[in-house]
Amino acid sequence: MKRIVLFIFCGFFALTITAKSVTPAASLPAYYEKIDGKSGKALFDAVQTVTKTGYSSLGYDGLWTAFKTTDKKSNGQVWDMYSDCNWTFGSDQCGSYSNECDCYNREHSIPKSWFGGSTSGPGCDIFHLVPTDGKVNGMRSNYSFGEVSSANYTYDGAKKGTAKSITITGGNTIAGNTGATISASGTVFEPRDEYKGDFARGYMGALLKWAGDKAFTSGEGAKTFTTNYSTGSFGLTKYGVALLMKWHRQDPVSQKEIDRNNGIQQTQGNRNPFIDYPYLAEYIWGEKAGEILYLDDMMTAYDVDFVLGESDGSREDVVHTPQLSVSATQVNFPSILVDEESAYSIKVSGMYLTSNITLTISGEDADMFETSRSSLTISEANSSNTQNNVILTYVPTEQGQHSGTLQITSEGAEPVIVKLYGVCNKLCHVTWMVNGEEYTAGEPTTTLAAGGKVNTLPTAPKSPCAESNQFVGWSEEVITTAQDDIPTDLFSDASEAPIISHDVVYNAVFATLEETEILATPAAPVTMDLNDTEGWTLSGLIRDTKHWRMVTDSYIESPSINIASIISITINMRTYGGASYNTIEFSADGNNIGELKASTNKLANYTWTPATTLSGSGVLRFSSKTNTNQNGPALSSIHIEMAGGGVITEYYYSNYVTYCGPTTDIVEVQQPKLMANKILSGGQLLIEYNGVYYNTLGQVVKL
Hints:
Immunoglobulin-like; 41 strands; ten-stranded mixed beta sheet; disordered N terminus; 5 domains; six-stranded antiparallel beta sheet
C-alpha cells in the first residue's frame, strides 16, 4: 500500500508531516528554471548559480546549532554517518576523546587542509560538513574517500586502509565506458554503504558552489578534484568521477537526505540541486553528459513516482513530442513601391526536435516574399542565444495588396504557419517650391508610395524676400499676400510631415521676425550685519559689540540665492588671534568657491569676485578655514552683490508669405507666434509666463 504524504511549504522551506512528499517540482524554488534547456559548460554555470542562490554563511561556530535542524534523528539525538553512537546535542560535543562514542565533532568530509585550512567559506559550508564520531573522524584524518581493499581500521562499517581500483557501473564522460576501471593508490577512507551517496552528492554540491572560488586540490584532494572546469572534467579527476558517480548511483537519495536538504535551506539558505534532481549528475559527469537537459525529463526527489533509496531520478519512459514556435504568426509589411524592399525579422525555435526545421513560402503571391533561411538545424533552433534568426522580405513587382504563407515544419511536430501581408501603392511625386521655382538642394524626397510620408526635407532655403524674413517651414498652401495666420499644414521637420495620397507641391513659407525690448531692473543685493540677520543662519559664533568671531565648527549661511548671478562678495572683517587665524572660506552646495583673508587686526572691507562663471542656486556657507576654540577671523557684515537688469527681448513671427514680391507689405501683427523671452545680463536669466517674469529661483521680478 502506498504511503500518503504531505509537505507544507512556506516560502522555500518544507516541513515533513509524514514520510514522503507528493509535491512535484513546482514546489521547488523557481530558480531551477535557470538550468532548463542547457548543456555542457552552460549547464555547469547555471547549476553553480543555483547552488549559490540564497546562501548565507553560518560561520564555523554556527554549525553546532545548525546540526540540530539538519542532522537530528527521530529520537532527537545526533545523526552520525561514520558510526551509530547515541549523542545528545550540546552536551556531547568534543572536547577530547580516546574511544569511539566519546563525543561528536564537526567533520569536513572535504578536509579543510585540501583548501587552505580555513574554517570560513567552504570551511563552514554545511553541504559537506556533518556531525561525526570524534575518534572515527580522527582516524579518517585528511585521507581521500575511496573503497578499501585491505583495512587497518574498521568501526561500524566505516573503514580506513589500502585503496582498491574503482569499477565503473555506468557511462562516465571522463572515466570511459561501462566495465573500465580507475586505479587508486595509497590509503583511503570508506564510509558506511548507506551514506556513500549522501557524501557523493555533498561533494558535488560543494564543488559546484565553490568552483572557481576555492580549489580543493591541495595534498590528498588532488586525487579527487581538479581546477579544470571545462567540458568533461568539471572539477573532478577521472578517479573523482568514477568514485562519486558510482556511489551516487548505488546509494540513491533517501528521506534522510531530503530532510537534511530542507534543513540546509532553513539554516544556510541554499539547496543542493543533486538531491532535488538526482539525475542532474548524469548530465554533467555521466551518461547524459553533453546532452540538453530538460527539467521535464527528470523527477524530483519529491515526486510520487520517486521511490526513496531506489529511483535514479530519470524519466526514461517519457516520450516528448517535437514542438515548434515562432515569435510572430502574422507579419504586416509597411506600404512600399514596386521593386522596393521591406524586411521583418522573426525568431524560429523548437524543443525535443528530431530533425532540422524547413521553411517554405506558398500562396498566390509567394514570388513577392522571400525568407533568408530555407532550413534551421536542431542546435540553431534550440539555442537560447538565438535572437531573430530568420529575415522575411517583401519585394513587390506590381501595385496592389499581396499575401503569402510561411510554413515551418519539422518531423513529428505540428506545423507552424505565419501569414504574410504587403501593400504596394502607386507612386506619388513631391515637388518643392521656393518663391515659385522648383528647389532640390539637399536631395529631398521626390517620390514615395501613397500612404507614406516624406522622410528627407530639402536644405532650409534662404529668404529671397526682405532681410527681416526667415524660412519657417513647408506648406501646400500658397500665400501671395502677407498674412498673420500660420498655415495649418506648416511643417519644418520630416516627423511632422502629413501622409500623402496624391502628387503634392510643397511651398517654402517665410515670415518676418519681429522683436520688442523691455528694460529690467537689477537684482537686489543680499546683506547681513550685526543688526540685521533675518533670513540668515548663524551657528556656533561668539558675538561681541563689534563683530562675530568664528570658532571651531561655527558657520554662517545665507538665504537661498541665485549663485550664478553673484558679482562680488564683500566681508567687513579683521584677524583675531594673529595672522594664522585670518581666512574665511565660502562654499555653495558643499563645494568651495572662494575665500577672503583679513590682513590686519582692524576691521576693513575685503572683496572677492568670481574668476570663473558660477552656476546654480542655493545657500552660501561661510566658515573659518583655521578654526580654534577661541581664535578665528572676526567679521561685522557680509554683502553679496547680485547681477541683474539688462533687456528682455521678445521674438515672434508675423507676415507669412510663400511668394516675395514688390507688393508684399508689412501689415499690423494680430496673432504673433511667441518664440522666446529672456533677460541676458551678468549671468541672470529671467523667464516670462503669462506676462510675469521670474528668476531661476521662482521669485517674481518686477521690470
